[in-house]
Design brief:
With 298 residues, chain A is an alpha/beta fold. Chain A is built from 13 helices and eight strands. Chain A has one domain: 3-Layer(aba) Sandwich (Rossmann fold). Chain A has helices spanning 17-31, 46-51, 54-61, 69-77, 84-87, 112-122, 127-140, 156-164, 176-196, 222-239, 258-266, 270-273, 278-295, and strands at residues 4-8, 36-40, 89-93, 99-107, 145-149, 167-172, 208-213, 248-250. Chain A has an eight-stranded mixed sheet, with helices on both faces. The two termini of chain A are 12 Å apart. In chain A, 52% of the residues are buried. By secondary structure, chain B is an all-alpha fold. Chain B folds into three domains: 26-55; 58-126, no CATH class; 137-205, no CATH class. Chain B has eleven helices and no strands. The chains are: A alpha/beta (298), B mainly alpha (206). Chains A and B meet through strand 3, helix 9, helix 10 and helix 13 of A and helix 3, helix 4, helix 7, helix 8 and helix 11 of B.
Amino acid sequence: MSSKVLAFINFKGGVGKTAMAVNIGATLAKLHEKRVLIVDLDPQSNSSVWLMRPDRWQEHVAGGRKSTFQIYDDALNGRNRFNFDEALVRGVVTWTGFTDLPRLHLLPATVELLRIEDKIHEIRSSAVYQLLDAALGSYFKQYDYVLLDCPPNLYSTTKGAIFSADSCVIPYVPDYLSLSGFQVLAEEIVEMREMFAPHLRGRRKPNIGAVIISHYRQSGNVYRLAINELELSIARLQRSGVLSSQTAILEPYIRHCVRVAESTNEHLPVILYAPGSIGAQDYCDLTQRFLNHFESKK
Amino acid sequence: MNYTDLAATLLHVGERLTKHAGKIEGETMGRAARLLSNQLLRFEELLEGYIASRKSGELLLETVLQSPAAKRHLTMGILKQGLRELAGKRLKADELRAAKREFVERIHDAGNQAEAVEYLKEALSSAIHLESGGADKESLQHEFVSLGQLADDEFAKEIEKKSIGELRRLAGTNGIRFTEKTTKQRLSALIRRYAQRAVFNISAAA
């Protein structure tokens, strides 16, 4: 089976990009025996510190060399210091002190990324979008799924992730602010298609493969109405050719769950920390749908 | 520490022990060696069991049976049907926990753990409750948007033609909650309000 590279993007913050990358990744590895790589591209390093204890993370990324920062630092300074095997974190360390989820690998980020984002953006050539793919593309083949956890913006790092990805996954909080942002995002991705076209060399054009609802609450009308408006909007964008007919809202919706928030403090995905919680159940069901959706695509 | 580090430590200790085995003496070393030996035997037994169950697919089968998805969706019916299809046996247990154990044992005897995993994944996936759905969802959403674009008198005419059942289906499909007591008049007002909002929101954001 060939690898599927998926970019988790949304320029709106707090919509659940990291939670989805971490928990879908962990569930794919644990229950479906998939080889999964999570690439943390966000200077906030949230997926890194979710899956690693802060002291271990700080020790690992000290100086930035064993992190995604090094990929960009190399490009800016004409160096070749990034070493994939050294930077890779294999599995998740549990309370036993031993690793679990051996099929889940992480390429951590560091806050240093924040320092160089401006400089990356100053690189005017199209090469800037291809940096990530050039550095990591050959390693992606070792995995069934590569999940790119992007920062909450549409700057160069995120564009590089979209360039590398087969498809984009949009985490979405059901409200109007997300709806307006989603439509802007969809239009931006169409523009990227034009921009990337000469460099894609037979690869898939950037597209939105799936939208995943987070922070869902069943009470009242509010969320169901907002999701209905999202569905109507997607249908409209599909009719106008902005979105493909394969763009789908994946269900079930991820409900708000305190155990998921708590699992960040334990530095474990929710499926390991609280397997009986509604958060773990939602992610299990969602991951099954996620697999059905992305593996049925050509 | 990971298991590779542990293996390296054991190898290192093994090499040192091999080199110096003939010279080691004393009660302290003897007691520590006995403790380690007992623990190593237990660990070896566990490890061999783990490797065997992984190889046969039984580990994954148990993982799926204990997964959050199974906790939510697994029923006696799924296990009964699975056992009949996969092993040609009837499930004897009448309680879920015992049924899971029996399922694993019978599947183990039949040697088709991989098929059982696939069967369970499929069954659990089919049992996932979806919020949205309905064969006529698309047309009801389309109608909702059309109603939102009508002037007040046109809207009233369209609503007049519909039964309360049709209005309930239209409202329910488009995310509007109501109760058995919600009147046609109230339901029409809700549809009017939210259909107009949908039209405004999806076109303003586009």
